Amino acid sequence: MSNHLAGAVLAAGVEVPYRRQAPQDSTGDLLAQAFQRALAQAGLVPRDVDGLGVASFTLAPDHAIDLAWRLGISPRWCMDDCHGGASAINMLQHAIRAVQHGDASVIVLVSGDRFEPADFKRLVEHYNLTTRTYLRPLENGGPNSLFAMLTQRHALKHGLTRRDYGALCVAQRAWAADNPGAVYRTPMTLDDYLAAPMVADPLGRFDCVPVVCGANAVVVARAERVRGPAVHVRALQCRYNTDHQAGDGLQTGLAAVADTLWQQAGAGPQAMDVVSVYDDYPVMALVQLADLGFAPDGDLRGLLGRIAARTLAVNTSGGQLSAGQAGAAGGMHGLVEAITQLRGEAGARQVAGARMAVVSGYGMVEYRHGMCANAVVLESEGE
Questions:
Q1: Is 141 helix (H, G, I), strand (E, B) or coil?
Q2: What's the N-to-C CA distance of the chain in angstroms?
Q3: Is 115 in contact with 327 (CB distance < 8 Å)?
Q4: In the list 139, 193, 308, 337, which could disulfide-bond 166, CB 3.0-4.6 Å?
Q5: Before 137, cis peptide (omega within 30)?
Q6: Could you say which residues of the chain have pLDDT below 50?
Q7: How far is CA 114 from the centre of its chain?
């Protein structure tokens, strides 16, 4: 294991069940539930916690310190994060450093959102100043139109069709069928996918991540504070704003850090038992997989064949495309799934003998494509 990240481990990874309809619980309530579940899994109590990180779009006007007050904790380390789908790994990087350098010994990272329809509309129309100033007046319909154009570029470059992107959605839905926490579990065929209503050509209904409400949490702690099973971090790399929005969006910052990530991990893509990539749209799952080196020969159809055959276990929760995207929690969903798999607690969808996993984050669209990308390699404790 790399000494670079030694000393801090992941002691828990939990999810408050995602729901399609907004619950009575507030965003703060959902985050508090995730906090409590994470401590219970780690065998800890609130007084053990001296660090808190929060990622949420709808907790405002509250911040991490307001949530700390509501939770009754007095942290030495406190962090708000606003990096969307890259939030979880971004917070994880800072939390590991905080634990290594003695700024905290037990940090809980929580992420989640509760959306009413008006909340989501407000978010996509005022996502940032660029969106509000240049895209909102066009009534472009939010991110679906942007990623429809990106998918068109990707399909043209790689010679792919809707059937190819659909193969990923169908494979992930098959995983979701064994995940009781997935919002959409009904088996889906390729014909079902192709028959779904068009949203923004070439994106159909099943290409667009469903908005849900929910929360996730992980616990980062000094290794000696953890009594139960722990997951170790072998490598972690981040790269933001690599192309200043001047590129075509068909490559993320992961391409710039992949070699360093695998060198730091002391293992390559072929050693990964579980892969979780941020899947707000099928095209972005394929882009991240390629950037991480899972299609070294550029054969994306071959990669999709491995995913369909489960010789490569990708997004074993069903991914966000079937489990749902609970706002900022979407960036932590794949991390929690990887932790669950490495702890051997994934039930019917458990990947046998899972020892190593890679998780990626992606997000925060400026006006063309996401600016943030990061990845972490995890390993379960040996016998």
A1: coil
A2: 15
A3: yes
A4: 193
A5: no
A6: 1-2, 383
A7: 17
